[in-house]
Design brief:
This protein is mostly helical and 794 residues long. It is built from 25 helices and seven strands. It has a seven-stranded mixed beta sheet, with helices on both faces. This is Integral membrane protein.
Length: 794
């Protein structure tokens, strides 16, 4: 076996001259989808050999096919199957479920890639990217401020400064100023300085995870090649040499966000001490020091904002440079200011006593207002871009990005408010000892119940629509099975599967209504917080008292829902990484989010495509160079997206030798609608022109995959008619047992799969193919009604 592996490594690298007889070899490179699988299942053979790669992602062959290039005649026209297994990039042990806690960062990063396709509006495109990066920066500040609220305000300032609370939580006794046991740490400033280690450690952990995951997943360099001519403004950016290597931007953003987190902690420590020092009769030296430190923090915050705004992604070339001075100095400066803030707050102030809450409500209200304004500006920019080149299939008429950014901000607010409220309830069981978290955070927790009611109402509407659709589908099922559809239960199951599969197409409406409700409820929470601050407690009577009572009830319910939701969140996250069935259910959403490079937030989960796409590109380029053979790139589900992205990265001469077979593909149904700038109609039509041939298989019962929907005559040329599912309605000679409803899985079980693969191989020739004529109804290679019908071989 080891000898076979060595032969495979020598024969598959492509560093040698073409093997003898390699011109007759055909290769089928299989790329699996989101569910993950094993090479033995993909190749249908228990004996497999790793040709190239490592334990994270690798290419496998059957043991008998390791040196197939040296024996081309033995295949008798059949391709050599290879399996690219990348499931370990997105699944693994249960600890990766903790990545779900980075969900707000992932969602805001997703908004960056959802801009409309807009040729000729470069300034607006840059403005769109800058606004998303600023929204990501506010999320870092918000979650760090929430950690400061829990550690500094609730624990160190309020609870440790209250004798009754310390009596309930003895682990805070060494911080208490009451009694004879008061020690050095009992001073308010020193308590704050000690508690600041918690949010600072959180910031350091995020920095470490970002750096570590970058090195583990995204540091693989793509093939270095010259950029293609950009005369065609509709050409997708996925074909640019530097698209899958964002090292420079990620390093800049990592430095800026790390500095922003440390500056947030430093401000939380500095501002209370500086306010105390500005009291009449206070020490002048401390007052001056506090003002200077606040000014330095403001200047550093401005510098961080400028760094985030100044540079976006550079994709036109493979940029290996790193702004080392900036990357090193920005966190170092923030760390120095943080250390200075700790020293300043820890200075002895005998008359300083902690009472009430820390001054944080203004900061949280300002962050919420800034996020709302950024979302509005982002919506205006997206509308301008969409209006320039309207795409009728684009989700929410190009407003998908602002809607997703709104959800990211809402997730951050809900997590901040819910955690702060739950910790406050835990520390102050009776609700009489502590002032509690800032008013805005409690109001944000109160938003959860009404928002949940809105989502449940929308789900109920969708369920009703699905049931009505399933009833209408029964007639179509009966019509598809003339003289055979005599089982009402069987008909009902097939119709329900078809109707449920169409729920995916209702996602834009669901997102639009949810994001709108979130925006309105968030605005109401901000208004309620401001009204609470300005209205004295004694004036809370009449209608205002009723509103306050309802708000308190919603706040209590929301805080409990946050606790339950957190437990469910982590539990389902662990299950998604361990249970293949759960992974197929919710994995597509996670895999869509982590498919894209980190362009707006450096603390988002790592991008697996920055490893997978270069892997596929290198394998295809080196194999075709070494053998001169034919290659069919076969991708299922998310694997079809990786296959398309890898095909765009190939040299034009190599891309023209590749045939593409996709099945259960979300290329148009999900990616084309939600990411029109990169997978829109123009981009997919360009891919169809540049590869030798492309065929796409889909089913009406598939909730993920769908047709590619290329315009004009190109559509039927790429898309085969929806496959029959199930393969047989009743019992037949070929299917004596009831055939299952396959939906998104087992496309290879359909005879159409082997038929389309055979047609693709018949089209490919060992010599370079000629140019493709205009799309038209050209018969397939075997004379059938379907086929690529374009390129002709010399």
């Amino acid at each position: 076996m080891e000898q076979a592996k060595e032969r495979g490594a020598r024969g598959g690298t492509g560093d040698t001259a073409p093997a003898s007889g390699g011109e007759g070899t055909a290769l089928e490179l299989l790329v699996h989808g989101v569910g993950g699988t094993t090479p033995e299942q993909m190749l249908d053979d228990p004996r497999t050999v790793r040709i190239t790669g490592d334990d994270t992602a690798a290419v496998f062959r059957r043991a008998d096919d390791v040196d197939a290039e040296s024996r081309p005649g033995e295949r008798r026209g059949e391709p050599v199957p290879e399996a690219y297994v990348w499931c370990n990039l997105t699944s693994g042990n249960g600890t990766r479920a903790l990545w779900l806690l980075l969900l707000p960062f992932m969602v805001v990063n997703l908004a960056h890639w959802m801009r409309p396709a807009t040729p000729g509006r470069d300034r607006t495109v840059r403005l769109y990217g800058m606004l998303v990066r600023l929204a990501g920066l506010t999320l870092t500040v918000l979650l760090t401020a929430a950690a400061c609220e829990v550690a500094l305000d609730l624990a160190a300032w309020q609870c440790a400064g209250t004798e009754a609370c310390v009596g309930r939580h003895t682990w805070l006794g060494f911080l208490s100023p009451a009694g004879s046991g008061a020690g050095w740490w009992s001073a308010p400033g020193r308590r704050l300085a000690l508690a600041a280690a918690v949010p600072a450690a959180l910031t350091g952990l995020l920095w470490y995870l970002s750096l570590r995951t970058w090195r583990a997943y995204e540091s693989q360099q793509p093939m270095d090649r010259a950029a293609a001519p950009e005369e065609d403004p509709a050409r997708t950016a996925l074909g640019r040499p530097g698209f899958w290597y964002g090292r420079r931007l990620v390093a800049r953003l990592r430095a800026a966000h790390t500095a922003a987190g440390l500056l947030t902690v430093a401000a939380a420590v500095t501002v209370p001490a500086a306010r105390f020092d500005r009291r009449p009769g206070g020490p002048a030296a401390l007052e001056v020091t506090g003002r200077l430190l606040e000014a330095a923090l403001i200047a550093a915050a401005v510098a961080v904002t400028v760094v985030v705004c100044r540079r976006g992604r550079g994709e036109h070339r493979l940029d290996r440079a790193v702004d080392r001075r900036l990357v090193q100095r920005l966190p170092l400066t923030a760390g120095t200011l943080f250390a200075g803030a700790l020293l300043y707050a820890g200075w002895a102030r005998p008359q300083w006593v902690s009472a009430g809450g820390l001054p944080g409500n203004t900061a949280f209200s300002g962050l919420a207002l800034a996020q709302g304004l950024l979302v509005i500006a982002l919506a205006v920019a997206a509308h301008l871009l969409h209006r320039t080149a309207p795409d009728p299939r684009a989700a929410m008429r190009g407003l998908g990005g602002p809607a997703v950014a709104m959800l990211a901000c809402a997730l951050g607010g809900v997590m901040s408010g819910g955690v702060a409220q739950r910790v406050s309830d835990w520390l102050d069981g009776t609700g009489t000892f502590l002032a509690g978290p800032p008013v805005l955070l409690t109001w944000q927790a109160s938003v959860i119940p009404p928002l949940l009611l809105v989502v449940l109402a929308l789900c109920a509407v969708l369920v009703r629509h699905t049931l009505l659709r399933a009833r209408a589908e029964r007639a179509d099922v009966t019509g598809d099975q003339p003289g055979d559809a005599g089982d009402p239960a069987r008909t009902r199951r097939i119709a329900t599967a078809r109707a449920a599969a169409r729920l995916t197409d209702r996602a834009p409406l669901l997102l639009a209504l949810t994001s709108t409700a979130t925006f309105l409820l968030g605005a109401a929470a901000l208004a309620g917080a401001l009204a609470t601050d300005r209205t004295p407690a004694a004036a809370a009577d009449g209608t205002y008292a009723v509103v306050q009572g309802a708000a308190r009830t919603a706040q209590a319910l929301g805080s409990w829902l946050i606790g339950v939701g957190f437990i469910l969140f982590v539990t389902w996250g662990r299950r998604a990484y361990k249970d293949p069935a759960a992974r197929r259910t919710i994995g597509i959403l996670w895999d869509v989010g982590t498919f894209w490079p980190r362009a707006a937030h450096p603390f988002a989960p790592p991008c697996y495509a920055e490893r997978a796409v270069p892997d596929l590109t290198w394998r295809m380029a080196t194999w075709t160079r070494a053998t001169g053979g034919r290659l069919v790139l076969s991708g299922h589900s998310q694997g079809s997206v990786l296959a398309a992205a890898a095909a765009w990265q190939l040299e034009p001469s190599v891309r023209a030798r590749v045939a593409l077979l996709t099945y259960g593909s979300p290329l148009e149904r999900l990616y084309g609608r939600w990411f029109p700038a990169h997978f829109g109609p123009a981009a997919l039509a360009g891919l169809h022109r540049e590869v030798d041939c492309w065929r796409n298989l889909h089913r009406a019962t598939d909730p993920i995959g769908g047709p590619v929907r290329l315009p004009g005559d190109c559509g039927p040329e790429v898309d085969r008619e929806a496959l029959k599912d199930p393969l047989a309605y009743g019992r037949t000679a070929l299917h004596p047992l009831p055939a299952p409803i396959l939906g998104h899985s087992d496309y290879q079980a359909d005879p159409a799969f082997a038929e389309e693969r055979r047609r693709l191989l018949a089209r490919l020739r060992p010599d370079l193919p000629g140019p493709r004529p205009a799309c038209g109804p050209v018969p397939g290679a075997d004379g059938g009604p379907h086929g690529c019908g374009g390129r002709s071989s010399a």
